[in-house]
Amino acid sequence: MTKDIAAKAATSAADQKAAPKRKPVIFTIIGRQRVGKTTLLNALAQTIHEQGGTPEIWNTDLLNRSHSISSFHDAKSPTGGDTKRQRKWLEEKIQSLMESRHDAILDIGGGWTALHELISTESLTRALDMMGITLSVAFLIGHERADLDYLEDLQTNKKFSPRNAAVILNEGLIPPSLDVDDVFEEVAIHPAVVEAMDNGAKLVLYPAAEPMKDVCDRTLTFRAYAEGEQKEGFPTSSIFDRLAIDRWYRRDFPVFLRELGAPRLPDMPKGLPVPAESDV
């Protein structure tokens, strides 16, 4: 080995040693029941896999049978029990990331969950900081006032306002009689959203796709549905529905992910997906 090559190798090794290791990311969504949390997490997990990522999938939403994230991915779940036992399981899974350095996608479900139990009994953000793990939280809401009350309760009563969170408005929950821009502006000035944004949160619109339920009912991936794969026991999907999902998954959803920003998301070695052209 020549001196030049040896010097370059030493410099490269020093650079690698000096470069900070990427922190594992736990991405989860908090919100009331039936606001679309599992569907969004499912689409995210499918995209991450296509982009070369290998996050662990954790499912503590044990009451969701028909649209469970476990129907689409090899998800790890607690064996059952009450929320306190599920909390202990979740604590163990979080601790395991210190060794594996994997990212994780956590589907907690609605209502009182294992994560809520953890929030109420521990300083979760501080504990994760000590472990070198990033908790990336998205609050998913619709147009109903109660959705924002839910966020406000977490901030006020649980003292849970994680840094750099996302507040996501699900366009699919906005009635056709309401203007999406008007609802977005109204949400943006709500005190709970303002507080979250003061703490680094970003308000983002999650785009709707009308055939979404058809995809989930069939337990097909979004790409498989768009490409015309059929499921026994269901009517043949129409070309118009398949094109709508194709547009959503290849154009609208990647735009949404770019709005969220890569730092909030689990690692995608190939990078965030590039949105398809508008005429897909």
Automatic annotation (TrEMBL):
InterPro entries according to UniProt: P-loop_NTPase
Organism lineage string: Bacteria, Pseudomonadati, Pseudomonadota, Alphaproteobacteria, Acetobacterales
Stated name of the protein: FAD-binding oxidoreductase
Record organism: Gluconobacter aidae
Taxonomy, superkingdom: Bacteria
